[in-house]
Amino acid sequence: MMQISSFVDRFSEPQTLLMAKLGRELAAKGVNVINLSLGEPDFDTPQHIKDAAKKALDDGFTKYTPVAGFADLRAAVCHKLKRDNNLEYTPEQTLVSTGAKQSLANVILATINAGDEAVIPTPYWVTYSALVEMAQGVCKFVSCGIEDHFKITPAKLEAAITEKTRLFIFSSPCNPSGAVYSKEELAGLVEVFKKYPNITIVSDEIYEYINYVGKHESIAQFEAIREQVVLVNGFAKGFAMTGWRLGYIAAPVAMIKACEKIQGSFTSGTNSIAQKAAVTALLSDNTPSMEMVKAFHERRDFFIAELNKIEGFKTLVPEGAFYAFPDISYYFGKKDAQGNEVNNADDFALFLLNVAHVSGVSGAAFGNDQCIRFSYAASMEQISEAVQRIKTALATLS
Questions:
Q1: Cα 352-356-362 angle, rounded to 5 deg
Q2: How confident is the model at residue 121 (pLDDT cuts 50, 70, 90)?
Q3: CA 27 to chain centre
Q4: Residue 115 per-residue DSSP state
Q5: How does pLDDT run across 192-204, given as a tens digit for each residue?
Q6: Are residues 76 and 128 in the same domain?
Q7: Quick check: bond before 173 cis, omega within 30?
Q8: How far is the C-alpha of 241 from the C-alpha of 205, rounded, in Å?
Q9: CB atoms within 10 A of CB 86
Q10: Quick one: 210 and 354 in the same domain?
C-alpha cells in the first residue's frame, strides 16, 4: 500500500475551495447556484495587459525565466512602490513568484522553524495558518471580533507575543472582513514591534487598490521596523489577473535570497508571458482597475444595505476588498423544515448552499465561527437575487 507522509495531515483543505467545489457539484446536477464563495473579480483582465501578453508571445518570450523574476518586472515593482506607496526598494529587494500565495509560502518557510510561533489576528485568510502548519510552526490566533472592527489592537498584539514568536502576518485590506488599517492604527502596532526586532512582519497587501476609504497605508512606511517587514502583493485582485498567477514580495535582501533559494527548488522562475504583461500592468494607466473598484464600491453599498435588512444579521461596512462578513450567530439553535439544527457557521453555510442555493464560506475557516463570508465580486443581478434567496431560506428556520 502506498504510504502518504504526515506532511499532508498537518493542514486542512481550504474551505474557500471546498465550498466552491460543493457549489459546482450542485450546479452539475442542474441546480442554479449563485457562487459568492470565491474571491475572484468577475471582470476580464484589461485589454492593454492582454495585448502586452500577446506581444510577449510574438516577441519570443517563451523560455525559462530567472528565479527571482525578469529584471524589468522587478524594476517596475520598485517604480510602483515608489509611485503608489512612497517606498524605496531596489530590484534586489524584490522577488516575483507564481502568485502571492507562493510568495507567502516562500516567506513562511524561510522564517519558521519547528515550534516557532506565528501571531495571526483573526479573522484571517485561510492559507496563513496552513502554511505555518506546513512549516511545523505554531499558530497563535488573536481574536479580533466585530467589536474590534476585526482589527488587532496594540494591547492584544503585545499580550500574544512570547519568546517563541517569530512571525506576525495580517492583511490590509483584509480578507475576509474588508477591514483597512489606518496609518494611526499601524503606528500603534509599530510601537509594539519596535521592542521585538526578531519578529518578521508579513504585510499582505494584495487588495491594496480595492480601498473605499482613501489612500492605502503600508506598515512598511515606518522606518523603525522597515527591516522586519516583508510586503506581499500581486496582480490577481487589483488587475483582475487571477489566472495569470503572479505575485511578488519586497523585503530585506537576506529574505529575498532565502526565498529565491526555496523557490528555485519548487518552481524556479514564474511564467514568462505573464511577467511581461505585468510590467505593462504596473507602468500603464490604471484607469481600468479604478473603474473596476468603482463597480465594487457600488455593489458593496447595495449588498451591505440589503444584508443589514435581514433579521439577525450584524454586518460592518467593509472598507476594502470585496467581501461581506456578517455575524449570523442569531440563527444558531434554529431548525430547518426537516428538523435539522443550525449549530454553527459551518451548518449555516451548508444550509444556504442546499436550501437557498447560495454559496458562501463559513467564518470558521477564517478563525471566526460567528460569521460567514460572501464575496460581492459578482454581478449586481446575482447579488440581488442571492439576497432574496437568503431571505426566503432563512424565513423557513424556526
A1: 15
A2: very high
A3: 26
A4: T
A5: 999 999 999 999 9
A6: yes
A7: yes
A8: 15
A9: 9
A10: no
Assign 3-state DSSP to the chain and report helix, strand, coil percentages, each to 5: 45, 15, 40
Q: Before 46, cis peptide (omega within 30)?
A: no
Looking at residue 41, its amino acid is P
Residue with cell 476585526: 150
- The answer to whether 343 and 318 have CB atoms below 8 angstroms apart is no
Which residues lie closer than 8 Å to 131 by C-beta, 6 or more apart? 11, 104, 105, 108, 109
Do residues 198 and 315 share a domain?
Answer: no
Which cell numbers hold the place of 364?
470558521
CATH number of the structural domain spanning residue 390 = 3.90.1150.10
The half-sphere exposure of 209 on its side-chain side, counting CA atoms within 13 A, is 25
Q: What is the pLDDT of residues 61-92, one digit of tens each?
A: 999 999 999 999 999 999 999 999 999 999 99
Q: Are 320 and 369 in contact (CB under 8 A)?
A: no
Q: What is the pLDDT of residue 337?
A: 87
Distance CA 31, CA 23 (A): 9
Phi, psi of 171 (to 5 degrees): -125, 140
The residue whose grid cell reads 470585496 is 322
Q: Which three cell numbers stand for residue 64?
A: 525559462
Q: Give the structural domain span for 356.
A: 6-44+288-394
Grid cell 470558521 — which residue? Answer: 364
Neighbours of 256 (CB within 10 A): 23
DSSP class of residue 40? -
Position 166 in a domain:
yes
C-alpha grid cell, residue 20: 466552491
User: Which three cell numbers, joined as nine digits, stand for 3?
Assistant: 504510504
pLDDT at residue 28, rounded to an integer:
87
Instruction: Give 306's DSSP letter.
Output: H
Domains of the chain: total: 2
3-state secondary structure of 133: helix
Q: Which residues pair with 139 in a beta bridge?
A: 118
Report d(CA 12, CA 366) in Å as an integer: 12
**Residue 342: how many CB atoms within 10 A of its CB?**
21
Alpha-carbon gap, residue 286 to 255, rounded angstroms: 30
Place of cell 509611485: 83
Cβ–Cβ < 8 Å for 125, 171: yes
CA distance 217 to 78: 17
Chain centroid to CA 387: 24
